[in-house]
Amino acid sequence: MYVAVKGGERAIDNAHAWLAEERRGDLAVPELTTAQIREQMTLAVNRVMAEGSLYDPDLAALAIKQARGDLIEAIFLIRAYRTTLPRFGSSLPVDTGAMACDRRISATFKDLPGGQVLGPTFDYTHRLLDFMLAADGDVPAAPEMPVDPAPVPHVMSFLNSEGLIAQETCDGTPAPDLTRAPLELPAARALRLQALTRGDEGFVLGMAYSTQRGYARNHAFVGELRIGTVPVEMEIPELGISIEIGEITLTECETVNQFTGSKTEPAQFTRGYGLVFGQTERKAISMALVDRALRWEELGEDDQGAPAQDAEFVLYHCDNIQATGFLEHIKLPHYVDFQSELELVRKLRRDATGQGAE
Amino acid sequence: MTESTDRKTWLGLLARAPQGRIASLLSQVGPVPPATDLRRPEAGSVMVQGRAGGTGNAFNLGEMTVTRCSLQLPCGTVGHGYVQGRSKTDARAAAVVDALLQTDHADRVHATVTAPLAAEAAARQKSRAAKAAATRVEFFTLVRGED
């Protein structure tokens, strides 16, 4: 028998009204604007864009405000909004080699064309709370120095020229799209990269850390980490040419990993790759490590049974919206399901204690 | 700057202009012929692609918001506007500028709209590059140990 349960409308309406009031907080404190979030909570905005898989800083700021700072809730809002947009098409692949770099560092080469550019980084800060920020204060302008007009080539191209690292070549395969077709295994690297770039930062970080601690160990050096802007170009059918349709900030990480080689093939370093919307370097480095771990099969390595090598485990659990949706649904009413469990347990207990016949 | 005079370049400048900037520059052009919408401003998304390892196979990185608009001037010239973000006003203003740049108004519109947009974009980029340059590490080696 199924009994429909109705009710709770008034309670739900009032809960939402209270939610709005709690979101606003103390009325004596000025309300936060979305422009303030966009400009001053940039890294939160970047994470919401990356995992929401939609590059729009204004929308991400609005989502963060609406979600009271709960970033996964904000990502949920962005994913939901994304589905309402008609898709005009796909861009040409962005050229990260031509990035206007705010930051560009290499842990493998000290002296390299373009140099080590630190950019606006938390690295080398003392991680001490700055109580000056609790008071309003003007920030002095950042120093500027003459710009070296020389190009800033990918670090990997130096190793490439000597044949010391596996080349990344394009065979023209069109990119599969997770948002259009369900994830199926075995997943090509292009599909894995899409899943990882929109995957949960915490999950991908944990997976990456596990490889460093010895699960599918493949000792990674950060060959290069670069953050900056690239133009996005798209073919416009009505114009018959490709034009720039915007400019986005990206973080790219390329790792140099343990080499492979055999009697027939000379030893060569292998690579992992991370590319993420916004200034998101923890995520991009993590992505590169997990990408490398997932490549074990194509690189002829052993399956060590490590979680980070298990494409099914990683790809089916890295999406925080799928995860939170399934996780949080268990708090919603399951009265009927539970009723049947309850009946069953009561019956089993009656049978066990010989009081079955009543 | 002659760079911003070819269509691909000016469309790119218009796409990347800060919100509201095109309309505000366009208002300084003076009277412009009224345009009829062929495709009303419409917000949508474009899937941005990257390449594995920077040079390998393409993969889907995520979408970005884009707004587009197409219109026609009384003389028959068609203009297309594509702008990053969701501003319908900006997309329409971009399409008007694109159309005007193909007419006799081109010089005036170039001087008032696209040339300033190019200068502003260059200044923004130069300022960030100069700040980045100031954070470039100059290594020096210390002589250590006994000699």
Could you explain the architecture of this structure?
The complex is a heterodimer of chains A (358) and B (147). Chain A folds into 3 domains: 73 residues, no CATH class; 180 residues, no CATH class; 40 residues, no CATH class. Helices cover 37% and strands 17% of the residues of chain A. Chain A has 12 helices and 6 strands. Chain A has a 4-stranded antiparallel beta sheet with strand order 3-4-5-6. The longest helix of chain A is centred in the C-terminal third of the chain and has 18 residues. By secondary structure, chain B is α+β, with helices and mostly antiparallel strands. Chain B has one domain. Chain B is 39% helix and 26% strand. Chain B is built from 4 helices and 3 strands, in the order H-H-E-E-E-H-H. Chain B has a 3-stranded antiparallel beta sheet. In chain B, helix 1 packs across helix 4. The N and C termini of chain B lie far apart (59 Å). In chain B, 46% of the residues are buried. The model of chain B has no long low-confidence stretch (mean pLDDT 92). Chains A and B meet through strand 1, strand 2, strand 3, helix 7 and strand 4 of A and helix 1, strand 1, strand 2, strand 3 and helix 4 of B. Strand 2 of chain A pairs parallel with strand 1 of chain B, so a sheet runs across the interface.
Index terms:
heterodimer; A: 358 residues; alpha+beta; 12 helices; B: 147 residues; 4 helices; PhnI (chain A); Alpha-D-ribose 1-methylphosphonate 5-triphosphate synthase subunit PhnI (chain A)
Number of E strands of chain A: 6
Terminus-to-terminus distance of chain B: 59 Å
- The total domain count of chain A is 3
Instruction: Choose one word for the global shape of chain A.
Output: globular
Give the biggest sheet of chain B: 3 strands, antiparallel
Termini separation of chain A comes to 22 Å
* Class from helix and strand fractions of chain A: alpha+beta
Number of helices of chain A: 12
| Radius of gyration from the alpha-carbon trace of chain A, in angstroms | 25 Å
- pLDDT below 50 for ≥5 consecutive residues: which ranges of chain B? none
Number of helical regions of chain B: 4
Instruction: Tell me the greatest interface.
Output: A-B, 83 and 53 residues
Rounded radius of gyration of chain B (Å): 21 Å
Structural class of chain B: alpha+beta
- The total tally of domains of chain B equals 1
Overall average pLDDT of chain A:
92
Low-confidence stretches of chain A: none
Strand arrangement in the largest pleated sheet of chain B: 1-2-3
Largest sheet of chain A: 4 strands, antiparallel
The average pLDDT value of chain B, as a whole number, equals: 92
Protein name (chain B): Alpha-D-ribose 1-methylphosphonate 5-triphosphate synthase subunit PhnG
Organism (chain A): Loktanella salsilacus
InterPro entries (chain A): PhnI
Protein name (chain A): Alpha-D-ribose 1-methylphosphonate 5-triphosphate synthase subunit PhnI
